[in-house]
Amino acid sequence: MNAAVTQTGNTLNCQVAVIGSGMAGMAAAIFAANRGLSVVQVGKPSEISFSSGCLDLFSTIPGETLRSFDNPFEGIDVLTAEQPCHPYAKVSRDEIVQGFEEFTAFMNAAGIRYHCTPQSNQKIVTPAGTLKSSWCVPSAMYAGTRALAEKKRILIVDIRGLKGFGARQMAQNLKAAHPCMGSITVEFPGREKSGDLMCERLTWDLEAPDVLKRFIKVLRPHVAGYDAIGLPAILGIYRFEELRTKMEKALGTTVFEIPTLAPSVTGLRTKEAYIGHLGNTSVRHFPVSVKDIQTGKNGGFCFEVTEGFQNFEVNAERMILATGRFLGKGLGVNDTGAIREMLFDLPVVQTGHRSQWFDRDFFNKKGHAVNRAGLETDVVFRPLGRDKKPFAEGLYAAGSVLAHQDWKREKSGAGISIVSAYKAVAHLAETL
Amino acid sequence: MLVIGGGATGTGVARDLALRGIDCILIDQKDINSGASGANHGLLHSGARYVFKDGEAAAECHRENQLLKRLAPHCIEDTGGLFVAVEKDDDDYVARFPELCRKFGIPVADLTPEAARQIEPCLAKDLKAAFAVQDAVIDPFMLSLDNAADAMANGATVLRNVRLTGFDTDNGKILAARVEHRRTGKPFTISAGQFVNATGAWANSVATMAGANISMSYSKGSLLITQTRINERVINRLRPASDADILVPGGTVSIIGTTSLEIDNLDDIRPTTAEVDAIIREGADMVPELARARYIRAYAGVRPLVRDLAGTSGSGGRSISRNYTLKTHSEDNIENLVTITGGKLTTFRLMAQKAADIVAKRMGNTKPCLTDKEHLPASAKGEWTEPGKSPRVWMSNPERRDTLICECEMVSEYMVDEIVRSLKDEGAQPTLEEIGRRSRIGKGPCQGTFCSFRLAAYLYRKGELIDDQGMDQVRDFVNGRWKGFRPLVRDRELMRVELQESFLCALFGMEED
Ligand SMILES: Cc1cc2nc3c(=O)[nH]c(=O)nc-3n(C[C@H](O)[C@H](O)[C@H](O)COP(=O)(O)OP(=O)(O)OC[C@H]3O[C@@H](n4cnc5c(N)ncnc54)[C@H](O)[C@@H]3O)c2cc1C
Ligand SMILES: Cc1cc2nc3c(=O)[nH]c(=O)nc-3n(C[C@H](O)[C@H](O)[C@H](O)COP(=O)(O)OP(=O)(O)OC[C@H]3O[C@@H](n4cnc5c(N)ncnc54)[C@H](O)[C@@H]3O)c2cc1C
Fold first, then answer.
1. What does residue A143 show for φ and ψ, rounded to 5 degrees?
2. Tens digits of per-residue pLDDT, A287-340?
3. Best residue of B507, B508, B511, B512 to probe chain A, by most A CBs closer than 10 Å
4. Interface ipTM above 0.90
5. Which atom of ligand 1 lies at the shortest distance from residue A259's CA?
6. Quick one: fold of B2-35+141-215+321-362?
7. Which domain holds residue A195?
8. What is the dotted CATH code of the domain comprising B76-136+217-304?
9. Hey, of A163, A333, A417, which one would you mutate to test binding to chain B, going by the most B CBs within 10 A of its CB?
10. Phi and psi for B43 in degrees, rounded to 5?
11. H or E element that contains A185
């Protein structure tokens, strides 16, 4: 019953085109493929490589004071009662749970295991020494969450030359809440002479067995008296579960990872796992950006993509716009200084003149107005045209491009992406 | 002797006095150059700009320009300058310019518009007149830091983060200054024989503490820094003073400004989006690519405007020109205070000399001023604020195992170590803010997105930060850079801000307490 993308000459025909390969695009492609639909996906999965690897659902309502919720669903109930335009107001609790289940099941099959306690957020250690709330946490970070919750004696390790990751900074900031916390800086085996080290480089190094052995040897003298060791997330891009287990055995302690600044290995893992596993699905992925999309006579969509030296024309019956915000390039600014949607020039909910976009205090608890700009949609996430009706019957939007949300402050990045993609795909599958 | 205010003028006074062998203490409420001296255009005026309004000030600028080029060459990039007019500018004004320059002894050379566009290809196509003058670029940070360093080398004491809060006076005589430490809030007093008020725009608030009054108003000026260097020489628009008339190159960037906005509160000085728009629009008439250029930072400074110029011409305290204001306060019946304010960076030395002459004489010191004869020694203090220096040092030491903390400006751990050491020598805390002021960290295109955080991590590793100090410092540092970036966010800049907020808020939750 699985439909495949068909090819005649240089023309590709599919049921669903997903524009974007961030969290929302990945989710949309997975959901569509799972429903037996043929999918062409475009977009560079680059932004995702910034991500911490955690899947946030919801934790905080920004405002004069921040209201934080341990139970994300409680928070979402309060949020949607107060903000009926929020994307979460368009979905039910069941849809949220099903969306996450389906997404994490796919990632699990692709090799990334998540831990989730349905009624409550988890706390993970960040490089700033703060505790971040997230809902689904990759197992390598979850080990740290457990160690903290169980008041274990924790040693945080950093590596000389790896900047923006300070073990002592984390230990100093965490010690008020968690007194049994130590820190140490070590040399990375084979990289003792270099000044600047990059996470990704060290990760590749560690995939070699002898480097792993030498790294364990470097750590061994320091672990006495500790139950858990926190390392920057560099334990492998593909074999991370295996490497971590090996280290735990050799050191006799829990070993957990802490996400790092960009480009992060955790984000890279997500990307590699996703792309790697796509081969088992009906999705054809092109890591390119598209410029011009035509809407066809029969309500379908048509655009060009390039692969190597070959140009393809893609015809799709439905389309999901998961192009992100400014970083993803789904949104931009037009000549008059208004925020615009870049592919269809869809109407964008504006948040005033640019002098009103941002607060003077970067950390103002209310958040910045511009972050709430984006696409207005109907309840199944079809963006609205100027007449307030769906712009096109078969066009959907998912992820951070949506209006009336502030994912950075709400800690709802992955959640909004997964859930809007879920609802959009569920609807479009019914119409096909 | 107590000098209040650590801008160009105050540090200049301190050095002048120290060279005359007079013991002095210099205090600033924040840091060296935290006022207008740290927020100006950095143009060492040739004088040509003032020939229409104030010939005497023009001539003064010219003399100081020549003197400083000789005595403090390490603070100056001798670029030369141009005055240019475009089609819509007034012909009559243009015609009078070379005449007036010659009248006041300001060297000026005629250029054809073609020749001007040849040496500065960024100039507008509809150029109709051009003149070459002796403008140059001066690094105000290096200048003040070197003045302060030489003052210290000659016995002066410099106290930063020490704010004047009042005076103990007795019958027209100031006995002591009441001060408090900005960080600790600890009050103490400093006794001295003579007091010099070199607090620029804050001059009246200090005078008021002594029971005097200077009628002042304030003019805010905003400037924009481009991401790349657009011009080689200083470019001035030849028209009556207006917005965005001057494009000053410096190191790897160019600076366009300024605006002029009357304000009445000195507390929250920041550039606005409206000013940014005006500067870009007006600047593009002269240099069209300013309309498309990327900007990395906007900033604003305040010029003090003294209203009662009549008062300054009183006996004994006559200012030789309207360029600056020198008050002896004899008319206020205060015997041991001098106020020196207004003027220009270009004339700071002369202003300092005039103030020092009076207080030295009052103390019976008859040694002559030396700042017009002796070279200003280059100290190591300002060394890492020089654009382009950090990359040079970093590249020339490939064998040094050194990690870059700021990739945009190539500031490395080794350089941070040096700055931390020098701050500690001065008894200062090596905070992110202080290190930022002493280096180019956070001043490149990323504006602190990554480096503020990396610097904090490094300072923790070195034991310079403990507990949660670093978090507050990162917040302050980011907000400091944000102040200068927020008005510039127009389109592509949105990406950078989104990335920064993703890290600092989505991941670290730094908006939480
Ligand atoms: C630094 C950082 C940390 C983060 N940490 C977390 C976290 O801890 N937890 C969490 O839940 N979320 C986190 N996120 C958020 C999350 O990863 C996503 O960014 C967010 O969910 C929005 O996803 P999106 O797919 O809507 O947009 P994006 O991720 O921005 O993706 C947009 C996609 O669209 C593509 N695109 C745009 N225009 C075109 C075009 N014309 N043609 C083809 N393709 C196009 C882009 O190439 C890109 O692939 C983080 C994000 C960042 C930046
Ligand atoms: C936008 C702008 C552009 C300019 N461009 C140029 C130019 O290109 N060329 C040029 O020659 N000139 C220029 N100027 C003028 C020049 O910047 C100033 O004339 C000069 O910097 C003034 O130096 P100052 O030391 O007198 O004052 P400031 O530099 O303002 O120093 C005063 C100091 O006093 C301190 N202070 C205040 N109150 C107290 C207190 N209670 N206790 C302790 N300390 C206190 C402040 O912290 C400050 O550091 C410009 C000015 C502006 C505003």
1. -60, -35
2. 999 999 999 878 899 999 999 889 999 999 999 999 999 999 999 999 999 999
3. B507
4. yes
5. 8
6. FAD/NAD(P)-binding domain (3.50.50)
7. 141-258
8. 3.30.9.10
9. A163
10. -95, 125
11. strand A181-186
